[in-house]
Write a structure and sequence with these properties.
Helix 5 packs across helix 7, helix 6 crosses helix 7 and helix 7 packs antiparallel against helix 8. About 80% of the residues lie in helices and about 0% in strands. It has one domain: Up-down Bundle (3 helical TM bundles of succinate and fumarate reductases). The chain is globular and about 50 Å long. With about 210 residues, it is mainly alpha-helical.
């Protein structure tokens, strides 16, 4: 009985750490790289399309994307959904910590839905229609559509900001889970860093989207 309980606790311990790790590496780093690419929107259609398409020039690009990004992403997402129903808020949390706790979980579900829609709209849909590769034109036409443009803009804005918040705030949990920030003073430093990271990545995202807004 003791051995079975120990194995369960040990596997749960390991699963939580893998879940935390995949949220930062590689998913979080890919998010930062993806947001960086969006800055090329200000350079025009040809430069932006070439920058995005250059990643797919390698015959291993799709495999790398699936193995390094999509599999860890969906592992992190579906385990995160499971943890929503399993974990409880600590009574010692402050009001602000409670707010971040629930925003982290709500944003996680929202971002998962946004990613599924984004992959279909920006990758699978154009590929099936034979228009894959014209990413700038696809984005700008979606934003400027007189009927659905405002909805597209709103979804993109909420999706991008939700992803940035989920990543930046998730660094707090990551640092505590992995023993990087265990003291109150170190946790305050990490909280300040995550807020600054959120502001920087949000400003970068808004600046990028302004090119086609």
């Amino acid at each position: 009985m003791f051995f079975a309980e120990w194995c369960f606790m040990d596997s749960h311990f390991l699963t939580r750490r893998i879940h935390s790790l995949t949220g930062v590496v590689p998913v979080g780093l890919f998010l930062v790289y993806h947001l960086y690419l969006q800055l090329y929107l200000h350079s025009g259609a040809e430069t932006y399309n070439n920058s995005v398409n250059s990643f797919y020039d390698s015959p291993l690009a799709i495999w790398a994307l699936v193995i390094v990004v999509y599999i860890p992403l969906f592992f992190h997402a579906f385990l995160g959904i499971h943890l929503i129903f399993e974990t409880t808020v600590q009574p010692s949390y402050t009001y602000f910590s409670h707010l971040l706790y629930w925003l982290q979980r709500i944003s996680g579900i929202g971002v998962l839905l946004f990613i599924i829609a984004h992959v279909w709209n920006a990758q699978l849909g154009p590929w099936m229609a034979g228009t894959w590769g014209t990413h700038f034109e696809h984005l700008s036409s979606g934003f400027s559509n007189p009927e659905s443009g405002m909805i597209t803009k709103t979804v993109y804005l909420l999706g991008v900001l939700g992803a940035v918040f989920h990543f930046a705030n998730g660094l707090n949990t990551f640092c505590m889970t992995w023993g990087i920030a265990l003291t109150p003073k170190s946790q305050i430093r990490i909280r300040i860093f995550s807020i600054l990271l959120f502001l920087i990545l949000s400003a970068s995202s808004l600046y990028a989207l302004a090119a086609i807004w």
